[in-house]
């Protein structure tokens, strides 16, 4: 894979501190804005190539993937419907289209964007969905167009996260809802490295950054999103029994702590969901 050195994708600072090494890859921290990112990282071209084979490719593993993601998708769909009437939804990084299909079954008008051609073909041919080849900025959606934009495990893959967030803001209607789900890996990574437990939790070089709820909030603030809500938002159900047990255990533990703390405590190290509204919104 062809790699290149980059400056901090958020603030352009060139200084950095080595945080974690995973194989030959390095996650670094920007000393001026605290952003955690992969450096050096794969070039744009090699990433596009890489994503053609990133998702599962045969029928059986696609089904397993659907099963794993289902609880997260259903939870997100319920969340969206707490705040929004049926409307027009865009899912960025739509994969095979399972979330789009869930929302369509609930009466929403849905469209997706995806990088992997095989996933686009599946969404179109098997599920009959409309999915455009990404990145989103290239599709040219009109301004103030969507009631909801969602992105599951997308923002950590993007070389320019701020450009993506600006793009989401532009195409959302005033009062429109952005739902993002992302891994929050650094705290657990740091713990495991203290215990000298080898792991590949950062999923490098696929993940170009690791966001915390605080960092997501700062980015959304800068774009002009109104008040945001941070949640645990369910957990995945991987096929592998050990991973599944860990996911259920940490998922339930983090949800329990979240509610017991009056929706304040977000267990570090587990995936998070954020809801952000374009413009002011009264909770
Ligand atoms: Zn920075």
Question: Can you walk me through this structure?
Answer:
- By secondary structure, the chain is an alpha/beta fold.
- It has nine helices and 13 strands.
- A seven-stranded mixed sheet has the order 8-7-6-9-10-13-12, with helices on both faces. Strands 2-3-4-11 form a four-stranded antiparallel sheet, with helices on one face.
- β2 and β3 (25-29) form a beta hairpin.
- α2 crosses α3.
- The model has no long low-confidence stretch (mean pLDDT 89).
- The structure holds zinc ion.
- Zinc ion (ZN) binds at residues 8, 10-11, 13, 30, 32-33, 35.
- Zinc ion binds at residues 8, 10-11, 13, 30, 32-33, 35.
Class inferred from helices and paired strands: alpha/beta
Largest sheet: 7 strands, mixed
Quote the distance from N terminus to C terminus.
46 Å
Strand content: 15-25%
Poorly predicted runs are none
Tell me the number of strands.
Answer: 13
Identify every distinct bound molecule in the structure, by name, code or SMILES: zinc ion
- List the helices and strands in order: EEEEEHHEHEHEHEHEHEHEHE
Can I get a quick summary?
The chain is an alpha/beta fold and 283 residues long.
What distinguishing features does this structure have?
9 helices; binds zinc ion; 283 residues; 4-stranded antiparallel β-sheet; 23% strand; alpha/beta
How do the strands and helices of this protein lay out in sequence?
Elements: E1 3-4, E2 17-22, E3 25-29, E4 36-38, E5 41-42, H1 44-50, H2 59-83, E6 88-92, H3 98-105, E7 109-114, H4 117-125, E8 131-133, H5 136-139, E9 146-152, H6 161-171, E10 172-182, H7 186-194, E11 209-210, H8 213-223, E12 225-231, H9 241-260, E13 272-278
Parallel strand pairs: 6-7, 6-9, 7-8, 9-10
Antiparallel strand pairs: 1-5, 2-3, 3-4, 4-11, 10-13, 12-13
The protein binds zinc ion.
Residues 8, 10-11, 13, 30, 32-33, 35 line the site of zinc ion.
